[in-house]
Amino acid sequence: MSGTRLTRWVAAIPMAALALATIYPLVFTTNVAMKTRREYVLDRFSLTDSLRWDNIVKAWTSVGMSRYFLNSVVVVACSVALLLLLGSMAGFALARLRFRGSSLLFLGILAALFIPFQVIMVPLARIMADTGLIDTYPGLILAYVAQFLPFTIFLLTSYYSTVPPDIIDAARIDGNSVYGVYWRIMLPIGAPALLSVGVLNALFCWNDVLISLLLMPSAEHRTLMVGVTSLRGQYSDDIPTFASGVLIAAVPVLVAYLFLQRQIADGVTAGSTKG
Amino acid sequence: MGPATAGPTEDTAGRAPAPRPATASARRNRRGSRAERLAPLVLLAPAILIIAGLRLWPLLLGINFSFTGDGARNGMNVGLDNYLTLLHDPLFRTALRNVGLLVLLLPVAVAIPGLLATFIFLKVPGHRLYRGVYFFPAVLSPVIVGAIFNLLLAFDGPLNALLGGLGIGPVDWLGNPDVAIFAVVGVHIWATFGMALVVFLAGFATLDSSVLDAAKVDGASLPQTIWHVIIPSLSRTIQFVFVTTMIGMLTSMFGLLYVMTGGGPAGSTYLPEYYVWIQQGQMNQPALASAASTALFLIMLVVGLGQIGILRRAGKED
């Protein structure tokens, strides 16, 4: 099969080029973040000879990225915790408890999966304003939970459907209530799925800009991504500081990706293979 | 709500029900306490309340809202006026035209990751590395991707420098109304092809290798193998990628548009989602924004119903 081998090597060249094109933008940004403004204007491509953290420190402190960062951490942590709690409760009930209308309910949740945020954003903003939840942490957290709960329930239901009923029966015979089964059996058994869904939800919430832009209008409540968009206008003549802000927002995702790549990919593909 | 054991229920994921004998758990349930019988309701209530209140209810509210007026006519029934305004608004027409462009570019956005996944599956040199590298931009926020490409696509930026070295350009990527939408869509594809790639690879993992071996023995060329063996076996995966890629193009480009072009130059990069945002957030015309939302939803509904069909069929095949 020398022909196929040749094809493979020919294909490898554009694929390697594409891999470089995938990595380069972030390398470029990191390099720019390390430069002084003068260096950037004179030569934006050369590698910096020294690692300078001045821009990063400036972006973190005086530009206010630390505040935005903290806002994002609080909102994402609370949203993910709630999503996993409510999602696993619902997933367990839909997959392993028998009650009338369970499949209809599952279809209803599946339908909610296909309502994009753009379609409900106008009335949602009004509901949040009417209830006084606009521009508050609980309001944004609730919006994120509502946005990503159908997806979370969908994945956790299909995961819990694979748990053998014998395990539940055994736990019942041992005297556990339904709630005991959920808390002591289903939560620990679901750990791999919860990790995967949790990481994915954390990414969704961390990366979101539209929902946060709509529901957190004041500057002090900005999440990190909205903070990055506001940098653009403020620092259009100070590109290294701008690049530093972008880098601060990207690094947590980069770290999560390095350690949890498999879980992220599992979550993305679950919908395609499990159905 | 009846007793927990009433009636046969099918497996919720739509799969063939696992054999479930009438066990101790069922018997216990029947004589279980009230709290036990209400367990499904208790476990599901918070999720149902949130989904119904903050997703389904706003959807109805928004559709209803789209038939009312803005400003002086606030709350009045104006019939289809908002929809007529949309049809005559050059910005919304541009947004619709750009949706048409996305549909035309859809096969490209599916073929690229499909072909790359094929080569990774065929173990090109370095295949172990590529999956992890290609998937990486897919986890970055559109805001970060857009901010980075603002630098890269600047008139005096790296891409034009590279092209200048080859004797091409410079191109005003984000400043030329004829080019900007292609630049933004190109960046979107760059940022998301890894997502589709991973889905394709999961599909390849289910491929029966004996069929591929048979094709090899028969001396099939690579294009023949792709066309006659791989594409038919992966039809489900390909459909799934088509639908999810289209939904992604319609609903996750806001961040890129917001950071890269702001809808410009000359309104040339508007998409329906961006139009909704501008009318709601900037122009203070929520009713018109609702009409645009409803129009977007109709577009999505066609795509989404197709997806439900695929998912349910996928479930039955298992």
UniProtKB/TrEMBL annotation, chain A:
It is found in: Cell membrane. Residues 69-260 form the ABC transmembrane type-1 domain. The keyword Transferase does not apply. Its main location: membrane. Pfam families: BPD_transp_1. GO terms for biological process: transmembrane transport. Keywords: Cell membrane, Membrane, Transmembrane, Transmembrane helix, Transport. Signal peptide: none annotated. PANTHER family: ABC TRANSPORTER PERMEASE PROTEIN MG189-RELATED, ABC TRANSPORTER PERMEASE PROTEIN MG189-RELATED-RELATED. This is Carbohydrate ABC transporter permease.
UniProtKB/TrEMBL annotation, chain B:
The chain crosses the membrane at residues 38-57, 99-122, 134-155, 179-207, 240-260, 287-311. Keywords: Cell membrane, Membrane, Transmembrane, Transmembrane helix, Transport. Pfam families: BPD_transp_1 (PF00528). It is a multi-pass membrane protein. Residues 14-26 have a biased composition (Low complexity). GO terms for biological process: transmembrane transport. It is found in: Cell membrane. This is Sugar ABC transporter permease.
